[in-house]
């Protein structure tokens, strides 16, 4: 019996300029790469329902990382080494081929999903569309002895004529850890040891998912999505976090000497981020625009999940900044607002558009203890998403009417406050001070958004708002 893929039945929450699947469920971005003139992004995909299920790799390609053409599913869970899921992994271009290294997930008995084995597998394409799994899969059959069965999400790269991978793992004592492998041909892998490990499960996680390790501005940065970090006052408030360690990778030892874990995004909906290097040398990151405990209202409409806007990573002042990639400007359709006020009042910034880029600059040199509120509401419903800035504390609070808890983003002091807000039909991404802090949210507008701003002191505010493109996904491919 052939099961038919699910269809989208209602477009009310479909996003305008974010990468989505034609229908069905998406989670992690996978295999980001540039191959034969296109950027390729794959994603954890369940095309048969709007819920997580046996994972395939969905596939899309783009010339600019913004306008996506869906391609046929790249790999499916149909081999003895991956029969319950082609889990997350990465891509490497080698010998004219686009190679995928991914985790095979296998249950001993499908009625018990708590008992599984995970291994690493290879697939390759020479045209960027059709993929063949390697006949001798798995290429890494089992985890090393100093790791549990949680053994997934390989990230592969080339260094000095050889290939290396980091794989997410867990110590037998229940600490997240990073496993390090080496190969000359992607087929025969040697285990080199544990590169890094959580100090405690409560502070750094009981399992490390979706690692990525790359060099940026003279540092080695480990991007990681740990499970199990306990909330601490204003930090680690989501079910799982994505963040980074900055350090130095010693290939000989091997070891990664690193500093403390930093959360990357302060919103409710950001996870499992991965990066790639562009041909012009930029480090670009894309994340899953969701968290497992999101209410996902779009599931009622035959789909769930999307990927974030691609963000360029910049490391400076001992901090990772995230900025919308320069190409994002090409999404601008028209200027809707361009004005400045010396204001102490509530003003309507814009109403009636679902795809917006809102830029605000506020001069902080002539004002003290300013309170600023940006409210994105959804009349006539009581729903709203509110950003509150206090100059003395120099931090933003974010309230999402539909989600529990406040989210907090602290900034370093500055003479000018900059906000860049990307609003889409059911998402909001907020970049503060050139990406020093970012908040990513799913937010389900039922009607046309109304954006207002309130200041409690006279402050000089400059505002530029663009309408953005609403049609960046093209799902019509020929098989
Ligand atoms: C992270 C994750 C990965 C795994 C994938 C399965 O969200 O749990 O560790 O490979 O999702 O879909």
TrEMBL record:
Enzyme class, broadest EC rank: hydrolase
Pathway as given in its UniProt record: Glycan biosynthesis; sucrose metabolism
Occurrences of domain Glycosyl hydrolase family 32 N-terminal (ranges): 18-324
Keywords: Carbohydrate metabolism, Cytoplasm, Glycosidase, Hydrolase
Keyword Phosphoprotein appears in the UniProt entry: no
GO terms for biological process, alphabetical: sucrose metabolic process
Catalytic function, reaction form: Hydrolysis of terminal non-reducing beta-D-fructofuranoside residues in beta-D-fructofuranosides
Main location: cytoplasm
EC number per UniProt: 3.2.1.26
Residue ranges of the TM segments: none
Domain Glycosyl hydrolase family 32 C-terminal positions: 327-444
Gene Ontology cellular component terms for the protein in this record: cytoplasm
Recorded GO MF terms: beta-fructofuranosidase activity
Location(s) in or outside the cell: Cytoplasm
Matching Gene3D superfamilies: Exo-inulinase, domain 1, Glycosyl hydrolase domain, family 43
Pfam families attached to this UniProt entry: Glyco_hydro_32C, Glyco_hydro_32N
Family: Belongs to the glycosyl hydrolase 32 family.
Its biological purpose: Enables the bacterium to metabolize sucrose as a sole carbon source.
The protein's name in its UniProt record: Sucrose-6-phosphate hydrolase
